[in-house]
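SEQUENCE AND FOLD
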Amino acid sequence: MREPKSLFINEDNLGLVTDFYQLTMAAGYLQNDMNHPATFELFIRRLPENRPFLIAAGLEQALHYLTHLRFSRESIEYVRRHPAFKHVHKDFFSYLKKFCFSGEVFAIPEGTPVFAEEPLLRVTAPMIEAQLVETYLLATINFQTLIASKAVRVVLAARGREVVDFGSRRAHGPQAAVLAARACFIGGCRSTSNVLAGQQLGIPVLGTMAHSWVMAFDTEEESFRAFHRVFPENTALLIDTYDTLRAAQLARELNIGDKLLSVRLDSGDLLSLSKGVRKILDEGGLGHVKIMASGDLNEDRIDELMRNDAPIDIFGVGTEMVTSKDQPALGGIYKLVEQERYGRHVPRMKFSEDKVFYPSSKQVYRFLNPGGIYERDVIGVEREDVGGQPLLEPVMHKGKLCKEPPDLEDIQSRTLESLSQLPEGLKRLRTEEAYPVRKSQRLEELKRRTEEGLRRG
């Protein structure tokens, strides 16, 4: 009988985590002697609806990939046997045996607000290396940036109340659940229900009980007392299985004082129920007990609850956050912007309809007003002197990390600090305000000259 497959990515199959055409192009570049240095940039062409800004995320996993990328013997044999590679020269497979990333990478740090057309990542490497890594880089940065940006909206709606990632069971697979937990933490969530994310990433882990626990006992009171006996210092009770207000009274009657940490509401009219539960708990001297709410929450529902003074201390948010349900995909792209040919740097661009982008290696320069609030960004040519703070930093040199990646807590701190520097209008859930991002005059001129040259052929 065949052993079931987990289909998890590991270092033995990392080289195959790519689109097939990356490998066909790689073989073509090698046989056409086109492995010269090239620069690609990863950016978001347009911001999704209701996203006046994004939060950069996913860089650490991108760097792990670049430093560990290899082709195992099994991976090479699989490629060699594919019919499309029937006439590919054996030198290509010898090249894959020795493959490792040897290039330079500049990136905007995780936790930084970013906007459309701004390079989040810039890769300079031999053409084959720079091309092969496209799929993985887009997958990890697109996904985590998408989820971190959604999490920020939820956290802003909660107005300082705690937000917990409850989305593992609704994420697009177990690995996505862990990455989503990381991105949600970067976006400001305090904890996660995902135990592996806690073990691997150091994110605080939080949970209560399921309705099945309550239903497994003959009475609700018996289920509460049994749970408290097992977790006497950490009792959190789910109280909406049958009658929410009656269960709140039962929780009060347990007489366990400060050992009862929280109660959770997972259904019903959360506004009226939370107020009713708060009254019952307070009358029993349990003002310290926190009320957690969960159940198909998103930023709009949380905002409505907060505007109506719901006494909810913790929001457990799942499906809507870890899938970014209202905007479930981020259109990040990875484009060739420059090549080193004939002893000089040659800018590259495309100008097909609605898909024009600017050529050459670029830098993003951020300007702040005297009060420390973001005022505008300028996208310019790399090393151009336009003032402002350059956002892209060196993270890899000759295939080696330039410095140790920051702790996840430090990335979250950067997010929260950056939010305090954003214009207030950008932090509203519904806004028409757009942050000004301009191109430098030099970049505009370079685009004009590059387009003229390419059209002349």
The first strand starts at residue 37 and ends at 44. The chain has a mean pLDDT of 96. The radius of gyration is 26 Å. The first helix runs from residue 20 to 31.
